[in-house]
Write a structure and sequence with these properties.
Helix content: 55-70%
Structural class: mainly alpha
Largest sheet: 5 strands, mixed
Shape: globular
Number of helices: 24
Distance between the termini: 71 Å
């Protein structure tokens, strides 16, 4: 059985004919791609029996357009994917993914958000090696494939609108930037958006299998990032607005309740017991799917016997209650942290109102720089849908409500200045934006032969949108991906590429004896080493990440000395031969006498300030032997 908006509207039309003139379309869905003339159906197009493009020509025009956009999306995401040096967050999560691969040990660490990307990158690092390209590969693939989700709304959008949605999902500069960023924000937003699309398909085709697919996607979104819970709340609010719109009847003698009773009476009746049995059965399937997916990713892995892990439980099911309790405790602790509230206003403000306005202003600046076209077209599409149609489409309004409230709401929940919170709004806003851009294209097409002034204006608008997106993407994504002037760049992004100063580790760390990297300085070195976690444990990750990711990915070892005097003494008196020495720039002159023959470079470890000096030993040789090397002792250790 197929149930689409157009069929529902047709049923409404018999009851609500007075709502609109006969000449006005009353279907919820716009014209389908089959109702439009297909310019690709002429001779030689492949639709006349020519096998030139094989199966590709058998696809409808909207699908072919979307597939072409997906290809372009892959290109813009994979091009120079490893060019930008890792951000603080990227380095931290990537270090733990590589640690998972090396040790087999894993547990949910809420401070780095959901565990999904660690599991995926463990396999990617194992298969392809650990580097900046493979680190970002999974997020890039998800971002490139996301435009395919536009096809889930084909019962509600026409061809141009579907193409418009795919266009903005694939080529919006802000979405492109953060789909080239090893963070879970885009993954959670993408999975939630596709889950919503599957629920729409479940309604269109009246098929519960789509609901089960949506449950799996929502579960994956939860394993990507904890803020998926916010999506469900926003969905509830958007649904309430649509229900209110549906039951608030105008131009009719019946109330909303009377209309609803009529619709229910027309529904095929089945025994109540059958409804309950189906509901319980499918609810049980949904619960099993959700718990199975979340448990797999959140459950700890323990290679030893000191603690229970997932695979020990597979071999001994009697351990399952213990595993479940351990996993549940970790999840409760993590979600309590993220949703427990904070007394710190943030953004260096004294109260939550000023902090909210500060974060909101920074988000709007990022949108103005890299997502103005999408947002402006979303406003146009929403206005045209809400007040310009006889019967507004629920899908478009739902996504508009979802997106606009996310722009206003997410600055309230963030604790640091960042642009990636806009991703949560821009993904759903791609739907009304697709409607808006399709409207502009349609006006340009209609005015082509009827009015030169009107055509010139609409063509100029399209050219302005395209030019803005090209310039914004070129500058924000490729030319200045770590610049202080780039609103998409978060403060913990290193402004300078220090990788050439550490390249020696990839070449010589494997054959070098003793310490490969020496970290010096009280701001870079802890008073007491951590008992576990990111190595070298003596380093202060707040000031030095993502250096640890590169040390680990190169297979190097690191150690620390707190003071420059002690470092000079050990470098001069002990057979200590580090390949790289890293310290705050203020210690450069103090360390230079003990590091003659080393090349010296200064790099900023953050967007501004935080200058660090890198001393690199590029002289030939393999360094001190393991037997003769004496590792320094961290001060206070």
């Amino acid at each position: 059985m197929r149930r689409s908006d157009s069929e529902s509207a047709a049923r409404d039309e018999s009851d609500d004919a007075a709502d609109a003139p006969e000449s006005e379309p009353s279907s919820d869905a716009g014209p389908s791609s089959d109702e439009r003339a297909d310019p690709a159906s002429g001779p030689g197009s492949g639709n006349d029996g020519s096998p030139r493009f094989g199966g590709f020509d058998r696809l409808d025009e909207a699908t072919r357009w979307v597939l072409g956009i997906v290809f372009v999306g892959f290109v813009v995401r994979f091009a120079l994917l490893a060019a930008r040096v890792a951000h603080y967050d990227e380095g931290r999560v990537a270090w733990w993914a590589l640690h998972f691969l090396d040790t087999g040990q894993f547990e949910y660490r809420y401070i780095i958000h959901g565990p999904l990307v660690q599991h995926v990158n463990k396999f990617l690092f194992d298969a392809l090696g650990a580097n900046d390209f493979t680190m970002r590969l999974f997020v890039a693939v998800v971002g490139a494939l996301l435009p395919l989700s536009a096809l889930l709304f084909r019962e509600h959008l026409d061809r141009d609108e579907i193409v418009g949605v795919a266009f903005f999902l694939a080529l919006n500069p802000l979405l492109v930037y953060y789909s080239r960023f090893y963070r879970s924000t885009l993954i959670a937003a993408a999975f939630a958006f596709v889950a919503f699309g599957l629920l729409v398909r479940a309604y269109d085709e009246w098929n519960v299998r789509y609901v089960h697919g949506a449950v799996v996607l929502v579960a994956l979104a939860f394993t990507a990032k904890e803020n998926t819970a916010v999506y469900l709340l926003v969905w509830a609010g958007a649904t309430a607005l649509l229900v209110d719109q549906l039951l608030f009847r105008t131009g009719d003698d019946r109330s909303g309740f009377e209309w609803l009773r009529t619709r229910v009476a027309e529904t095929e009746r089945r025994p109540l017991a059958e409804y309950l049995a189906d509901f319980v059965w499918h609810l049980a399937i949904a619960v099993v799917l959700f718990l199975g997916v979340t448990l797999y990713f959140y459950a700890p892995r323990s290679p030893g016997s000191e603690a229970v892990g997932l695979w020990q439980t597979v071999g001994n099911p009697a351990l399952f209650p213990e595993l479940f309790d351990r996993t549940l405790d970790d999840v409760v602790e993590g979600y309590s942290y993220w949703f427990g509230g904070t007394t710190d206003a943030g953004c260096r403000k004294d109260n939550i109102i000023d902090a909210y306005l500060c974060f909101l202003g920074q988000e709007l600046q990022a949108i103005a720089q890299a997502a103005f076209a999408l947002t402006a077209m979303a406003v146009v599409g929403f206005i045209a849908e809400r007040w310009g149609r006889v019967r507004s489409r629920g899908v478009v309004l739902f996504c508009a409500y979802w997106g606009f409230v996310s722009i206003l709401g997410y600055p309230l929940g963030t604790d640091i200045a960042n642009a990636w919170i806009a991703v949560n709004a821009l993904v759903p806003l791609a739907v009304p934006a697709g409607v808006g851009i399709a409207l502009v294209v349609d006006r340009a097409r209609d005015s082509l032969h009827t009015g030169s002034v009107r055509f010139g204006i609409t063509a100029f608008v399209l050219l302005l949108i395209g030019g803005y997106m090209v310039v914004s993407m070129a500058g924000s994504v490729y030319v200045d991906p770590a610049s202080e002037d780039n609103e998409l760049v978060q403060y913990a992004q290193p402004a300078d590429d220090f990788r050439p100063s550490m390249q020696i580790l990839e070449e010589r760390a494997g054959s070098h004896g003793g310490t490969d990297v020496l970290v010096v300085g009280s701001s870079y070195v802890r008073d007491n080493p951590r008992s576990g976690g990111i190595e070298p444990r003596c380093s202060s990750i707040s000031d030095t990440l993502p250096l640890q990711w590169y040390i680990e990915s190169y297979g190097a070892t690191g150690d620390c000395i707190q003071t420059a005097d002690e470092a000079v003494q050990q470098l001069q008196q002990e057979p200590l031969d580090p390949l790289v020495v890293i310290a705050p720039q203020s210690l450069e002159n103090d360390l230079s006498p003990a590091l003659e023959g080393y090349d010296t470079d200064v790099h900023r470890l953050r967007v501004y300030g935080s200058e660090a000096v890198f001393f690199t030993d590029r002289s030939p040789g393999t360094g001190a032997s393991v037997e003769n090397a004496t590792a320094p002792q961290p001060a206070g250790g």
